[in-house]
């Protein structure tokens, strides 16, 4: 990720939920990058997530406490923790989203800190799935994925294809940190509204050549990066 400072992120309040999955290491990279940009990041881990990555890792990278179910059930604060976190967040990102947490969200269940925070908040929620290909293609998982998308609060992010941690090759990989950052930017910019939904956008990218004759031309060495960025931004906004 680029270390160039982007004023857009300064003071932004993002709550990141981490459920059980090896892709949590990508979330750590995202938290580190956003914190360095000046964003305020708080992380909530499920019990399963703690088997893959420690709360201390996220607390160190975010410069904020990382919360687990222990903080929820043993809370001694003046206000319920899930209410406080839900009201604090401008946006929520769940990455990785496991099949288990997907099922809970799709049916409105709340049996841990993360799911209670989601129900107690009003901000938009981006969800980035990560699981084995066969799990991702399972009928019940597909039903829950479609059901979740019927709620306008949730932004369903796509999965990527490639080699998975189980050595299988296929769909189910979580997006890379750079892609997650672009989706979160769009989420914060629009307040959760896919304001370009239904629009059809054609973007040209790369260098251009204007022929002078059969041999010579006037051109430029453009890389196409701006065109790609515009296409990604449009896709992120619906």
Number of helices: 10
User: What best-fitting shape do the alpha-carbon axes yield?
Assistant: globular
CATH H-level homologous superfamily name of the largest domain:
Flavin prenyltransferase-like
Task: Report the biggest beta sheet as strand number plus sense, adding barrel if it closes.
Answer: 6 strands, parallel
**Percent helix range:** 25-40%
Strand order of the largest sheet: 3-2-1-4-5-6
- Poorly predicted runs of 5 or more residues: none
CATH architecture of the largest domain, please? 3-Layer(aba) Sandwich
What is the CATH topology of the largest domain?
Rossmann fold
Order of helical and strand elements: EHEHEHHEHHEHHEEEHEEH
Overall domain count: 2
The rounded Rg comes to 20 Å
Describe the protein in words.
- The chain has 238 residues and is of the alpha/beta class.
- It has two domains: 7-190, Rossmann fold (3-Layer(aba) Sandwich), CATH 3.40.50.1950; 194-238, no CATH class.
- The chain is 38% helix and 18% strand.
- The protein is built from ten helices and ten strands.
- The mean pLDDT is 93.
Question: Tags for this entry?
Answer:
single chain, 238 residues, alpha/beta, Rossmann fold, 2 domains, two-stranded antiparallel ribbon, 10 strands
In short:
38% of the residues lie in helices and 18% in strands. It is of the alpha/beta class.
Task: Compile the SSE list and pairings.
Layout lengths: L12 E6 L5 H13 L3 E6 L9 H8 L3 E2 L1 H5 L7 H8 L2 E7 L1 H8 L6 H7 L5 E5 L3 H5 L1 H11 L4 E3 L3 E4 L5 E5 L3 H14 L18 E3 L5 E3 L5 H12 L2
Parallel strand pairs: 1-2, 1-4, 2-3, 4-5, 5-6
Antiparallel strand pairs: 7-8, 9-10
Helix pairs in contact: 1-2, 1-9, 4-6, 5-8
């Amino acid at each position: 990720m680029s270390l160039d400072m982007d004023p857009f992120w300064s003071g932004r309040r993002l709550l990141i939920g981490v459920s059980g999955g090896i892709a949590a290491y990508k979330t750590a990279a995202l938290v580190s990058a956003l914190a360095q940009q000046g964003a305020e990041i708080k992380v909530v881990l499920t019990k399963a997530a703690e088997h893959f990555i420690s709360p201390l890792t996220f607390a160190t990278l975010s410069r904020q406490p990382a919360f687990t179910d222990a903080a929820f059930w043993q809370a001694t604060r003046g206000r319920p923790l899930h209410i406080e976190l839900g009201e604090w967040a401008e946006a929520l990102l769940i990455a990785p989203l496991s099949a288990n947490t997907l099922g809970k969200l799709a049916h409105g269940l709340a049996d841990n800190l993360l799911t209670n925070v989601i129900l107690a908040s009003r901000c938009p929620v981006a969800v980035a799935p990560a699981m084995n290909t066969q799990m991702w293609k399972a009928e019940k998982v597909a039903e829950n994925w479609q059901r979740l998308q019927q709620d306008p609060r949730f932004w369903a992010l796509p999965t990527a294809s490639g080699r998975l941690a189980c050595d299988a090759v296929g769909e189910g990989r979580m997006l890379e940190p750079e892609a997650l950052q672009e989706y979160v930017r769009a989420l914060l910019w629009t307040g959760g509204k896919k304001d370009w939904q239904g629009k059809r956008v054609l973007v040209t990218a790369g260098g251009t050549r204007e022929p002078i004759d059969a041999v010579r031309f006037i051109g430029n060495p453009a890389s196409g990066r701006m065109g790609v960025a515009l296409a990604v931004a449009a896709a992120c906004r619906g």
